[in-house]
């Protein structure tokens, strides 16, 4: 069973999320109302997923996410941001801090449960329509610089893997990649997994961040 730590500064929100997850067969092992409590609870409980609010007093959700992902629980615990603040700046900051995805508080209960399970399985929410739209708004795919493939393990990618990498960076799902490159969905997923291993990132969200930081994609003007 997937275990979850729920983090939100509002007790009613925490209770509502707990009820949703419990009804969906997810084990809520703890709650936290501040970023500092979240960091301590994540280290003590080592949940599979931390469902993290962004706006909290003191240490906010983005800073707490960064500490959790860099701490002892970071190798096994994934952070899913649950927030009413879905503006680009918050989402990108959360992904850069180590979050594996985000979902809005207005999502349907089944979607929240599905999002938690998706993140627990090592995927990210970048294949969702909402996040894909974010990626397409935020970044612009361009012809890579000659030296853009040299750092962060990118030089180990094959030509096909580079194609797949750029498609992931543009927010494409495995199904989209398979259709565009005329390969099977299984083959597309295999390519993505090999890319993540070679460049040492844990999910698709961080492939996008790597693409942005390496200069393979740039912010839209």
UniProtKB/TrEMBL annotation:
Alphabetized Gene3D superfamilies for the sequence: 3.40.50.2300
Residue intervals of the Response regulatory domain: 3-120
Keywords assigned by UniProt, alphabetized: DNA-binding, Phosphoprotein, Transcription, Transcription regulation
Residues modified as 4-aspartylphosphate: 53
Lineage top rank: taxon: Bacteria
Cross-referenced InterPro entries: CheY-like_superfamily, NreC/VraR/RcsB-like_REC, Sig_transdc_resp-reg_receiver, Tscrpt_reg_LuxR_C, WalR-like
Domain HTH luxR-type as annotated: residue spans: 150-215
TM annotation in the entry: none
Gene Ontology biological-process annotations: phosphorelay signal transduction system; regulation of DNA-templated transcription
A GO term for molecular function: DNA binding
UniProt-listed SMART domains: HTH_LUXR, REC
One family name in Pfam for this protein: GerE
Protein name: Response regulator containing a CheY-like receiver domain and an HTH DNA-binding domain
């Amino acid at each position: 069973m997937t275990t979850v730590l729920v983090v939100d500064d509002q007790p009613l929100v925490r209770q509502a999320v707990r009820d949703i997850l419990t009804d969906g067969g997810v084990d809520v092992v703890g709650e936290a109302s501040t970023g500092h409590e979240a960091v301590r609870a994540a280290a003590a409980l080592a949940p599979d997923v931390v469902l993290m609010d962004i706006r909290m007093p003191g240490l906010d959700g983005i800073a707490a996410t960064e500490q959790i992902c860099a701490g002892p629980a970071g190798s096994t615990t994934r952070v899913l941001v649950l927030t009413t603040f879905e503006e680009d700046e918050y989402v990108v900051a959360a992904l850069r801090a180590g979050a594996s995805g985000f979902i809005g508080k207005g999502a349907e209960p089944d979607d929240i449960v599905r999002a938690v399970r998706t993140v627990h399985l090592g995927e990210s929410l970048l294949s969702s329509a909402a996040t894909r739209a974010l990626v397409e708004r935020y970044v612009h795919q361009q012809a890579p610089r000659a030296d853009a493939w040299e750092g962060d393990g990118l030089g180990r990618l094959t030509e096909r893997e580079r194609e797949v990498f750029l498609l992931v960076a543009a927010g494409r799902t495995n199904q989209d990649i398979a259709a565009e490159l005329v390969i099977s969905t299984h083959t597309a997923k295999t390519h993505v997994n090999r890319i993540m291993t070679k460049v040492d990132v844990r999910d698709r969200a961080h492939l996008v961040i790597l693409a942005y930081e390496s200069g393979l994609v740039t912010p839209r003007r």
